Amino acid sequence: MLKRHKAVALVAFMLLALAGCASVPINLELAPEPGTKDELVLATTTSPYDSGLLDYLLPDFQQKTGIRVRVLAVGTGQALALGAAGDAEVLLVHAREREDQFIADGFAPSRHDVMYNDFVIVGPATDPAGIKGLQLAADAFAQIAEAEVLFVSRGDDSGTHIKEQHIWELAGSEPSGDWYQSAGQGMGAVLNMTDQQQAYTLSDRGTYLARQLEGLDLEILVEGDSFLFNPYSLLPVTPDKDHDINYGAAIAFINWMTSAYTQDLIAEFGVDIHGQPLFYPNARASAKQR
């Protein structure tokens, strides 16, 4: 992607100074500046939406700030594209290399850790590929490929799809053929497709747990590989002369998401039903590390 026009370079520099270092909550007040528009466009990867987290959180943000959030739930790749085009004002994504490139290309001044969960490999209890209990995701993928047992891929350039592709690379496999199904859908839809066909897929744990409440007949077969760590970040989109970016609302949203109050809300989400959080807050941990 091309750099933003040089005419906005000074603006970007000033925003960087305001925003502070990457992964550190922005040191501004939660309340938006006077004159800030009362709608914010959030492009988010599908997992925080499909899991119900955003429905749980966003009413509090609107109550505190008076800003409505319009959610575009898409894959990480599409969310970054929406931000680059000026069609979203803050991004909630999970593909670190893509995020770093987005910043390097001038489309965001900084990134901010907000929460994490992990990826898991799920499939039928019968486990025809025999992967249950394997320690490494790459070993599991290699066995699925060797057995040519049906695998449903997100296939949508999402953070989950990007992680899946990296695992296939580690497994030394280039999946193709009738056993490998590219859905081009979000996580919730892919889990439903996988369940209907009793296939395998890669899922974030939060969406998987949320969909279990709807009768999902899939089991977690492989988990705990450090490579399956799944951090989520917030990126405010850099304003420029060509796009009417609601930057004040984006900053207020990031401040709110990384505040102690909202981090506690994230930590509580899902515990009453699942006995564990669906996402783990880490904005405060990131701040302490600097």
Could you give a short description of this structure?
Mean pLDDT is 87; it is low at 1-28.
Secondary structure tally, helices: 13
Q: What fraction of the residues are assigned to beta strands by DSSP?
A: 15-25%
What is the CATH class of the largest domain?
A: Alpha Beta
What is CATH's topology name of the largest domain? D-Maltodextrin-Binding Protein, domain 2
The poorly predicted ranges are: 1-28
State the separation between the terminal residues, measured CA to CA. 30 Å
Name the CATH architecture of the largest domain: 3-Layer(aba) Sandwich
List the secondary-structure elements in sequence, H or E. Answer: HEHHEHEHEHEHEHEHEEHHHEH
Would you identify the CATH H-level superfamily of the largest domain?
A: Periplasmic binding protein-like II
Number of strands: 10
**Average pLDDT, to the nearest integer?**
87
Helix share, percent: 40-55%
